[in-house]
Write a structure and sequence with these properties.
Length: 419
């Protein structure tokens, strides 16, 4: 993972953002959060807004991993056909997923405005482009179910979505009116600054190596110091099993790759685009740059693990997709990869891992964390106060038998528990 002297390679990291200090003394707070991506940072903000004291420990930079290496899409409707989601999760589970997406977008838009975050947030709507008849039919079949659940999607002419030279590479186009985009690094660092103004203590370069529950308090270890709190929340997404081995069968690391071009003269639709079941995605920024990524379905077996180097195979596949849009060739400025935490049933784990020992989790976003994380963390604060949180009831980690079997609870994390 990166240190403050080596900013991550994503385009978003070309913005200058201030570094936070590493943990350099023992600290305590009501809640200790491990992980400074969108999950950890939005949780920290929500808690300080409610008057709780918070310490957040991040191993590298805030937004240094997936949260600062994504496409910046805020999409309520996931890429996979909705009918498939209903078959997998049931109607209630599928609808809850959409609602968390809508609420997250509303929440991020509200934060961007109320906190005056300079993050290029825009309400744009989004496009789904299909590559063949089968994919078009999959989306069309889902549309009545989506409409029924209050998430309208509309088929439009390809001519209303793409310039003429690119249309031949696609089969059909659909639009969703309510989606949006932002710059994830500027958003997250702005939110972090607002959290600090309210007294939140955020530390970078502070990897938690272990933690233990003792006398009703969690004691976390990082840089040889202790951060103590009555409640501990794991927001480390793909890395969660490294602290809680019981999660190993439930959350696995998957790589996603992207690139960005120089500013282009040719202008595309300003809406973010998902194509080929969401395995291909792009958007054009205000200055004409294209950011584009995905194509991991061309090498599923290779796109696993924690390695964040880009590969010629996936980058070449993205470039071929780029050539569909810009046939004359274009200079690429940045290439990068990020690690996502994929959950076994495609839904994040949000809630208590062990309520008796005040240990909670918000991880396993399966590639949708920017678009659904902030509503999850808002509801998680209700769970932390032992209130009902119906919005995330279908994401309860204890839906997995492996976690229910931890009968004695989880009282120590990671390898190091000595002080
Ligand atoms: C290429 C790519 C494109 C994507 N595009 C989109 C998109 O457009 N829209 C969308 O909704 N989602 C997208 N995603 C997914 C989204 O980025 C993630 O789901 C989301 O960022 C997850 O946030 P998080 O906070 O859970 O995890 P992360 O951002 O991974 O944060 C976890 C943090 O925990 C830290 N950590 C790990 N172990 C420790 C430890 N022991 N101690 C302290 N800290 C630790 C890590 O350093 C990391 O910063 C994309 C992902 C990728 C890779």
């Amino acid at each position: 993972m990166p240190t403050p002297s080596t900013p991550p390679p994503s385009y978003w990291w070309t913005s200058a953002v201030p570094a936070r200090p590493p943990l350099g003394a023992d600290v305590e707070a009501d809640v200790v959060i491990v992980g400074g991506g969108i999950a950890g940072t939005s949780l920290a903000w929500t808690l300080v807004e409610q008057g709780a004291s918070v310490v957040l420990l991040e191993a590298g930079r805030l937004a240094g991993e997936a949260s600062g290496r994504n496409a910046g899409f805020l999409l309520a409707i996931p890429a996979e056909p909705y009918a498939e989601r209903i078959a997998l999760w049931g109607r209630e589970g599928a609808r809850a997923f959409l609602q968390l997406g809508r609420r997250t977008h509303q929440r991020l838009a509200h934060m961007a405005q109320a906190l005056r975050l300079d993050c290029d947030y825009r309400l744009t709507g989004s496009l789904r482009l299909t590559r063949d008849e089968l994919e078009s039919e999959d989306i069309r079949e889902s549309m009545p179910e989506l409409r029924h659940d209050g998430f309208p999607m509309r088929e439009i002419a390809l001519a209303d979505a793409l310039p003429e030279h690119a249309r031949g590479h696609f089969h059909a186009a659909f639009e969703v009116p309510e989606d949006g985009v932002l710059d994830p690094v500027r958003f997250l660092h702005g939110l972090a600054a607002a959290t600090e103004e309210r007294g939140g203590q955020l530390f970078e370069d502070s990897r938690v190596t272990g933690a233990r529950w003792q006398d009703g308090v969690w004691e976390c270890h990082a840089n040889g110091y202790r951060a103590c709190g009555r409640t501990l929340v794991i927001c480390t997404n793909a890395w969660a099993p490294k602290l809680v081995p019981a999660l190993e069968p439930l959350i696995v690391p998957r790589r996603g790759q992207m690139l960005s071009t120089v500013p282009l003269d040719v202008r595309f639709d300003t809406r973010p685009v998902y194509a080929n079941y969401g395995y291909q995605y792009w958007r054009q920024l205000g200055d004409g740059r294209l950011v584009m990524g995905g194509w991991r379905n061309t090498a599923f077996d290779a796109e696993t693990g924690f390695d964040t180097n880009t590969t010629p195979g996936i980058q070449g596949a993205i470039e071929q997709g780029l050539a569909d849009l810009v046939p004359g060739g274009v200079t690429i400025e940045h290439r990068w990869a990020g690690t996502m935490g994929f959950a076994r049933d495609g839904r994040p784990l949000v809630g208590w891992l062990d309520a008796a020992h005040h240990l909670a989790i918000c991880a396993g976003f399966t590639g949708h964390g920017l678009g659904m994380g902030a509503a999850c963390t808002e509801d998680l604060t209700d769970v932390l106060s032992f209130k009902r949180a119906p919005g995330i009831s279908t994401l309860d980690p204890l839906r997995f038998g492996e976690l229910r079997q931890q009968r004695d609870g989880i009282v120590s994390l990671g390898a190091t528990t000595s002080s």
